[in-house]
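Please, why this fold?
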Amino acid sequence: MATVDAAPPLDILVREPEGFYVWGGPPFNNGQPSMKLEKVPCTKVKFSEDGSRLMVMTSESGIGIYDCCSLKEIKSFQVPAVGATLSPCGTYLQTFQKSLTPQEKNLVLWKTDTGDAVYNLFQKHMTKDTWPSIRFSSDEAVACRVATNEIQFFDAKDFAKGILYRLRIPGVAAFELSKAPGTHVATFVPESKGSPASVQIYACDKDPQSQPLARKSFFRCSTVQLLWNHGSTGLLVVVQSDVDKTNQSYYGESKLNYLTTDGTHEGLVPLRKEGPVHDVQWSHSGSEFAVVYGFMPASATVFDKRCRPLLELGSGPYNTIRLNPKGKFLCLAGFGNLPGDMAFWDYEDKKQLRTTRAELSVTSEWSPDGCYFMTATTAPRLQVDNGIKIFHYDGSLYFKKKFEKLFQAEWKPESPDRFGDIAELIKSISTLKVDESKQKGPGSASKKPASANPPAAKPAAYRPPHAKQAAAIQAELFGESPSQEMSKNALKNKKKREKLKEKKAAGS
């Protein structure tokens, strides 16, 4: 395992309307980030999965590929692409252009180092389910794509060989290749002519008669999410239907299923509460997953890879869960149409560390070293109050910055394995906090610092206009303040009235 000294630096990509730039990540000197790359004009920017390459699209039909170590452009492409993406290790650039005839090969795979086109084909449409068309495992050892009634496999090192072999699956509409290692593929076949929808797991081998290792069928299934764990041993399937037959939800019905490649589990995850599945995420180790589910207030549970509950996180206004890439910590939050409450947990020690709030957050993610948690309010989802907040692992606010308009804010991807043990990392952060407090100078200890996350003021009870007017009249008559703070004369008058009441009560 890498030591803390050998760990790579944390970087943050920030994109505004004029372009993007790169900050040096925390800890910041003097509380402010340093600029590692000045602003570069662009319309879209995206890292490769391993953080080695950066794809930059411009309005002039240009695509630039940057090396993330030097932050220099290493190759440019003049392609009027509608869609473009990098392979996980940045070896290939995949582009899609509109085309009217099958003779025009509008989907092209380029080698980023040389700029050569290594494979092309015709694809009629680009949809969320079919893009990117050619999928890779995280180590780029396996490459495949879905076609009519089959999955086609390629040699990821040499696409000139064409299609190596095909996996025949009638009606297949979507698939997900396992990430690391790329040993299995999950496929989805929708409902058809009274037959239920199904998800099947196959091994990525050359056997054309390969039988599924696991299979699950579903009625009332419109779409699915296929979520592989690291290690390629388990698959979580979120099954969504457009209609909830119980009429309890306007947004339809969702269920969470779990399938394993060894066939030990094929069925529903035992959730304790009825209602939708809001969010689910695997840990980086692939040994546990966490789910937020149920009608509001939603519940949250951490399960092990055998689908047994490890920890109940209670209930609240939550719809998002983020597991720390180094383990031990997680953030449970309520974003989107919820007020932004966040609860930080140490799920190994089974204790809550802190609750706070990040209102109007659109995106949220842990830093690769697991020490920081960043939320961002971005356009076009929200056009006002755009900004970034960075929290320590325990939920205390570390940094915040507002923007006139912010389109994107994200950590540069790094493998969590390149960083040290999380216990050692947070110990070093605690040392930094102590040093910062010592540098404040004499007399600073006597001044109590303002809370970074002041508690929200308790809303006052609703009072109709006629009640407010009556309170004002009462204040004029008896010398009371309508805000319920009495003057000295009002207090004397109140005591006199109380004494008169006591005398009357004693006389009677």
Q: What stands out?
A: The first helix runs from residue 422 to 438. The radius of gyration is 29 Å. Confidence is low (pLDDT under 50) at residues 435-462, 470-485. Helices lie at 422-438, 465-478, 488-507.
